[in-house]
Amino acid sequence: MKHTVVLGVTSGIAAYKTLELIKQLRSDNIDVFVVMSDKATKMISREEFEKVSDNKVFTELFEEDFDYKKILEDRVVEHIALADKADVMVIAPATANVIAKLAHGISDDFLTTTALAVTAPVIICPSMNVNMWHNPIVQENVNKLRSLGYIIINPTAGMLACGYEGVGRLAEINDIKSEILQQLQITQSLKGKKILITAGGTVEKIDAVRFIANRSSGKMGIALAEACYERGAEVLLLRAKNSTILPRYHFKEEFFETSEDLLVLLKRYAKEYDILFHNAAISDFTVKNKIAGKLSSDKAVDLTLEPQTKIINVIKKINPTIRLIAFKAEFESDKSKLQQSALKKLQDTHADAIIANDISKNDRGFESDNNEVIIVLADGKTELIELNTKRKIAEEIVDYIIKTLN
Fold it and tell me: Would residue 162 show up in a list of annotated catalytic residues for this protein?
């Protein structure tokens, strides 16, 4: 199958180097569509890029023959159609200006509107003066994009066009091409698979207005859903209503509040799916003496909590063939004890893998943007994924599961 790369070119001096990138990609039978910022066209003509890409170069959101009536009739908007076509988008060189725009959701030209509409992986290749690169504002914007899942290929050190020497040169074309090819391979790794993911925490009602909850934000489960979607899977995310984090992509979603709600959804959908990442934080207890109305705050109230059915224990009964990858949160910093706890969970649930994490530290786990996990497989194999952003942890989990469970 022929792949499509959308190449964004901004007004860095290194823009001329991307002509060679296009030639190399085309030699590998990859179709390349170029989007240029207005200022980039002042440096290199769009005709040069059209010649090497053999495709139209896009620069203007509203060309001279723009007619909104035609848009409404055909239901085709060029930058959206191009974003849908992309298997990978690359911005090289990426100036401080375009990095800042993307980091803050600004879309005021063809390039930035396309970049924000793309659901495929986006590779950012910064190139600028060394002092600009080290400016704290630029670094903050780069780190924000990285945390959102953009792939950043850092600039290299050397003599710069401005006469300075230091970090700021566009990464080598071969390195950019290698990352593109790797991303093209990744995006097909779950093609044809149907993946179900649970995310967020359940609530257990006390009365009509109060409930017991946990600290799960849903960040980890949403990151897993995004990683699976980026690898070509058909994704259904079962997400807690109290999760305030919104996914980047528009895959299917259903919502739950209580553990009973979630169990109903799993009974409805689990039979249709190949893999389940069960990441939701399910309450182990429910309130036995629920109040129909609203409790009075004038006097003390004794609540009785009783254990409830563990959802993870019934998954394989609903669908014996589903690959079940479940999470186990423990207040345990000793990795060997964490691993033993995960092994016991495997035996009890007949899961294919348990992903255990320590929630005793403030810099990871519940509510944090970071995590560290141990993956434990049914055959006893283990894999430690060290502290990183939940986005990166999710990618590594998915790639490891694909590789080991085939």
Answer: yes
Residues 379 and 248 in one domain: yes
Residues 321, 388: one domain?
yes
Closest C-alpha to 112, from 121, 396, 103, 346: 103
Contact 10, 95 (CB under 8 A): yes
Predicted TM-score (pTM) of the model is 0.71
Based on the fold, state whether residues 93 and 208 are members of the same structural domain.
Answer: no
Q: How many domains does one find in the chain?
A: 2
Q: Are residues 180 and 209 in the same domain?
A: no
Q: Which residues pair with 166 in a beta bridge?
A: 158
Structural domain containing residue 356: 194-405
Q: Give the C-alpha separation, 402 to 405, whole Å.
A: 6
The three-point CA angle 353-357-359 to 5° equals 155
Domain end, chosen from 153, 186, 219, is at 186
- Rounded distance between C-alpha atoms, residue 354 and residue 277, angstroms: 10
Q: What is the CATH number of the domain that holds 277?
A: 3.40.50.10300
Q: What pLDDT score was predicted for residue 127? A: 96
Q: Are residues 51 and 182 in the same domain?
A: yes
**Rounded-to-integer distance, Cα 18 and Cα 91, Å:** 10
Selecting among 77, 162, 208, 301, the annotated active-site residue is 162
Question: 179 with 229, same domain?
Answer: no
Report d(CA 243, CA 216) in Å as an integer. 8
181 with 201, same domain?
no
Question: 92 and 21 in contact (C-beta within 8 Å)?
Answer: yes
Residues 315 and 270 sit within 8 Å (Cβ to Cβ):
yes
Q: What is the CATH number of the domain that holds 47?
A: 3.40.50.1950
pLDDT along the chain (406 residues), means of 10: 92 94 96 95 94 93 71 72 93 97 95 93 95 96 89 89 85 94 84 94 85 83 92 94 80 92 95 95 84 80 84 93 89 74 83 85 70 86 87 92 83
What does each C-alpha distance from 42 to 10, 11, 47, 76, 147 come to in angstroms?
A: 10, 8, 12, 29, 32
